Amino acid sequence: MRYSIFSLLRQSWAGHTGWTPAWRDAAPKSDYDVIIIGGGGHGLATAHYLASQHGITNVAVIEKGHVGSGNIGRNTTIIRSNYLLPGNTPFYELSLKLWEGLEQDINYNAMVSQRGVINLYHSDAQRDAYARRGNAMRIAGVDAELLGKEEVRAMLPFFNYDDARFPIQGGLLQRRGGSVRHDAVAWGYARAADRGGVDIVQNCEVTGLAIEAGRVVGVETTRGPIRARKVALAVAGNSSRLAAMAGLRLPIESHVLQAFVSEGVKPLIDTVVTFGAGHFYVSQSDKGGLVFGGDIDGYNSYAQRGNLPVIEDVMESAMALWPGLGRIRLLRHWGGIMDMSMDGSPIIDHTPIEGLYLNAGWCYGGFKATPGSGWCFAHLIATDKPHPVAAAYRLDRFATGRLIDEKGVGAQPNLQ
């Protein structure tokens, strides 16, 4: 069934009794051309583009829970391409362009909202750093505007400008950035992949990788063994666990990233804002809740929950930027597992095991990268060649020294 105004009218006349499931809950077959482990945004996007762009449809997406139960359903929904370094800028710009055409491509309302992203600065040095980033973006063909204090005040008059602990001097604005409904992305890609012939196998945990003579030949699962000519890992914070099944040790650490949402309120903020004097970002969801987040918890963990010191730090940053938030009640908070790479940039590459492919190390940037990651990972799997915009995301760059250190903090995943 294709969604349109006409199908909506037909269903309304029929009492909405004719809607079909968005995707099949498939049973695994014994053999596939490609198995993608991970039914989150990256895995589902990869499956969709394998089918739609490369004609590879004998594909299974294997998810240990249900579609959207991982990080794709527990993030702060921000999309942007305001990166500095050549290794990152073209990739995230491709991803943003794919976001702009996503709803037409997958025939699903993902609520793409290009409301803009503003990075605030609070010192002359920070202004110069943002000017450098903005100039690099414009040279690469990406939109960027450097705003002064009064221009920011005109857009966001409710912040503290007069007696703030960290006075706002201006901001770097990318108008094409914004937010997208995170769970709708999972559902939309699942539906599109299913329409392309992909099997989406839920409640099927991978317990081992079958490797013969240095080549992957399938996976062991809680629903039995499944053979495959190629296997792709797209499991976010569990990348190290899956890679260990193949005897690989990855240059990443797993950390918890917390996110928060307030009670629903009337429209307050119509853009995405990041606080330059601390790691804090805020936007407003379609339900009215203010969505915000901050730093990762500083210790390694696979638990999808956080600790109180990070909650305190996020709330302090919120109050320093926007004192009015003190009157709003926090509704809930949650945690997702981030696989933090040594330089803060991702990995899309072959592994030393033939037929085994890796998509990992997304740090904070996994959601905004969803369509670009799927596009480039599908290209790699289908052609065995890296996509040009993802060519820098090699696994061996940590051995050769060709790092993509966007934040300039070196090989310290807890600081990325």
Briefly say what this structure is.
This protein has helices spanning 5-13, 41-54, 89-100, 102-106, 124-139, 149-155, 182-195, 239-244, 308-321, 370-383, 397-400, and strands spanning 31-37, 59-62, 78-79, 117-121, 145-148, 170-174, 178-179, 199-201, 206-212, 215-221, 226-233, 252-264, 272-275, 280-284, 289-300, 330-341, 347-350, 356-360.
Draw up the topology in text.
Layout: H1 5-13, E1 31-37, H2 41-54, E2 59-62, E3 78-79, H3 89-100, H4 102-106, E4 117-121, H5 124-139, E5 145-148, H6 149-155, E6 170-174, E7 178-179, H7 182-195, E8 199-201, E9 206-212, E10 215-221, E11 226-233, H8 239-244, E12 252-264, E13 272-275, E14 280-284, E15 289-300, H9 308-321, E16 330-341, E17 347-350, E18 356-360, H10 370-383, H11 397-400
Parallel strand pairs: 1-2, 1-11, 2-8, 4-13, 11-18
Antiparallel strand pairs: 3-7, 4-6, 5-6, 9-10, 10-11, 12-15, 12-16, 13-14, 14-15, 17-18
